[in-house]
Write a structure and sequence with these properties.
- The chain has 664 residues and is an alpha+beta fold.
- The protein contains 23 helices and 24 strands.
Length: 664
């Protein structure tokens, strides 16, 4: 065919019919559009001039319910049916009769070569799930297609067009992709879970096992397709929760959760969840043998703790951070003959341990608030029972924290130390008596010597006839009696226990005690060195401080009684590094044999002594308690090196310690 021929000449002309519109079959929208379209400005011309092959092919696609299109002639003019129309989107109806290259401009680089191959060379194509971007709603969108392109032949074998059958499968692809994503996520979850997962179909055959289940069932080999009761033969015992819950889920569609013991060969406890599905049931199970063992141990531990708490003589309880009593042991109940029902849930400060003691409820509120803030509290507390008896308690309140450090519980503990306090009081009295005994010998020596001198002087006065000599004898006797008076006054001040604190100078305290030991000091060949620099008076219970100094100086003299030595007595003003308060520092040092390390760790224990039957072992214990009562402390240093041996005691006493103690 010559290149200059018209389309009508090329495809052959046919006789025009008076009813040319009837050549287009069908009553669909596209059939009507084809009939009503103005074809005069297209290479095809009037419908009456269309070749029979075109009409036959066109009527075939218009009658089809499958999306089909026809690209006709060298220009590939487009025809399409009603099923194809939605695929055109906004290209419809303008695409009818227009070249395919114009309608599919955005995708022509993909579809063009295949259409041209079919038209020019007769190469048919079939493609599945091909991504071809097309313009829809003004935007280029990804659309997936399954399509075929077939050449259209005339009876003479000439190719005159391309017939395309296609389907938009974007929804199908996206749905499958979403399904695959969900399936992949589900598989990931099933593979990552710590639970063993088994699916069972309605014939009770296992259809799926996850990796954990495969590991658990490794000894059974491949279980897929096998009966559940065959793989788990030991769960069918009478009253088995496995059988009951599995059948209820399978037959009634009701899920279940239970714990069951799986006997031989596993001997394990399992936590089982069974859920019905459309195809059967899904079983989730986890080995909880360790958890069961932990629970058993916890129950036994709780029982032991409960037994310990309820047989203990100490008062114990649990209190919430808000102040509610959560629990208490038997000893606590016996304080006021209560039952647990009487006390549990009460405010801590409203419990009978405090309500009969003036000021105790307020004190309980205060210590509770301090414990909630994280402070560990311990002190002695006298409480009054409903009977009127007063008991002294060593009381503590301890906070319990969670892993984040938050206080979640408070544990009050109280130990009745009434008998212990009485014993301590008796021991202190005994120590005072022992101190009096030790002083008695020193005082006897101190008084005996001047009294003997007075006796001799009076005898000489009676025998002398010289008035001047008699006068001198009487003056000497008066001096000796004055010395006796001084010793007596010092002794009275030492033993007179003041009930109220007062101001006293440190040099008066030290020199008074040294004067009481003057005879022992001289007899032992001890040289006393004083360095008394403190000027500010100390506010204290002077009798107690004298007792403490008596113990320290007496011990120093005892350490040097065999070989003599130096007794260093010093006072100075300083600052207590522990509290920052201004204080008096009294130092008693000796050049005796020193204190061994093993004894140094025990010298403040009651009844510990290195003096054999000559000591009570209470002196330093009481001295330390006196220091603490004055808000102070006692420190010792010692050396046993030959030529440099000795012990140094520092008694640190804040000037306002007693005032602060009374205020508290």
């Amino acid at each position: 065919m010559a290149r200059g021929q018209s389309s009508a000449a090329r495809f052959g002309s046919e006789a025009a019919s008076p009813h040319s519109q009837g050549k287009i079959s069908g009553d669909g929208e596209m059939a009507e559009l084809v009939r009503s379209h103005d074809w005069s400005d297209t290479p095809l011309g009037a419908i009456d001039d269309w070749p029979e092959t075109l009409l036959s092919c066109l009527n075939t696609i218009l009658a089809s319910r499958f999306p089909m299109a026809l690209a006709w002639g060298r220009e590939m003019l487009q025809f399409y049916n009603d099923a194809y129309r939605p695929l055109m989107a906004e290209k419809h109806p303008h695409a009818l009769g227009r070249p395919a290259a114009e309608s599919w401009e955005e995708a022509w680089y993909i579809v063009g070569p295949e259409l041209e191959a079919a038209l020019l060379r007769g190469e048919a194509t079939y493609r599945e799930k091909v991504l071809i971007p097309v313009r829809r709603r003004g935007q280029l969108r990804d659309v997936y297609w399954t399509y075929s392109n077939s050449p259209v032949y005339t009876p003479s074998g000439e190719i005159v067009g391309v017939l395309s059958a296609c389907h938009d499968i974007t929804g199908e692809i996206l749905a499958k992709r979403e399904r695959d994503t969900v399936t992949a996520q589900l598989n990931q979850a099933l593979e990552a879970t710590a639970d063993a997962v088994v699916s069972v179909d309605r014939d009770w055959r296992i259809s799926y096992v996850n990796p954990v289940a495969k590991h658990v069932l490794a000894n059974y080999g491949d279980v897929i397709g096998r009966l559940l009761w065959e793989v788990f033969p030991h769960i069918g015992f009478p009253g088995s929760p496995f059988v009951e819950n599995y059948r209820r889920a399978m037959e009634q569609g009701t899920g279940g959760e239970f714990e069951g013991y799986y006997p031989e060969p596993f001997n394990v406890w399992v936590d089982v969840h069974v859920r019905p599905t459309k195809d059967g049931i899904v079983i989730f199970f986890r080995d909880i043998t360790g958890q069961k063992e932990t629970e058993r141990i916890a129950r036994e531990t709780s029982a032991r703790l409960d037994a310990m708490c309820n047989t203990s003589l100490e008062y114990m309880g649990l209190v919430s951070p808000e102040g509610k009593l959560l629990d208490c042991n038997r000893a606590s109940l016996e304080f006021a003959d209560n039952t647990r029902e009487d006390l549990i849930g009460k405010w801590f400060w409203e419990c009978p341990w405090f309500t009969h003691t003036p000021g105790a409820p307020e004190m309980a509120r205060e210590v509770l608030a301090r414990a909630v803030s994280g402070e560990h509290i311990r002190f002695e507390w006298p409480l009054v029972r409903p009977t009127g008896d007063i008991l002294v308690f060593d009381f503590s309140l301890s906070p319990v924290r969670d892993l984040d450090g938050k206080v979640v519980l408070l544990v009050p503990e109280g130990r009745d130390i009434t008998s212990l306090k009485r014993a301590e009081s008796a021991l202190k009295k005994n120590e005072k008596l022992a101190a009096v005994g030790r002083l008695a010998a020193s005082i006897a020596h101190e008084i005996n010597n001047p009294l003997e001198a007075v006796t001799n002087l009076l005898f000489l006065s009676l025998e002398s006839a010289d008035p001047g000599q008699v006068h001198r004898y009487i003056q000497a006797a008066e001096r000796e009696l004055r010395r006796v008076s001084i010793i007596s006054n010092q002794t009275l001040r030492f033993h007179k226990q003041s009930t109220n604190p007062k101001f006293v100078r440190s040099d008066e305290l030290l020199r008074g005690v040294i004067a009481a030991y003057q005879a022992r000091i001289m007899n032992a060949g001890i040289h006393v060195e004083e360095r008394l620099r403190a000027q500010e008076p100390l506010y204290c219970f002077d009798g107690e401080i004298r007792q403490a100094l008596n113990s320290l100086i007496g011990n120093a003299i005892d350490a040097m009684r065999s070989e003599g030595g130096r007794l260093l007595v010093r006072s100075r003003e300083g600052t207590d590094w522990r509290s920052g308060h201004k204080c008096l520092i009294l130092t008693i040092a000796d050049t005796g044999h020193g204190i061994s390390p093993e004894n140094r760790d025990r010298i403040f224990e009651p009844f510990f002594t290195t003096k054999g039957i000559g000591g009570t072992g209470l002196g330093l214990w009481v001295t330390q308690e006196i220091a603490e009562r004055h808000q102070g402390w006692l420190r010792v240093r010692s050396a046993e090196t030959r030529g440099q041996s000795g012990a140094v005691f520092n008694l640190v006493l804040p000037f306002d310690g007693v005032a602060r103690q009374n205020a508290a």
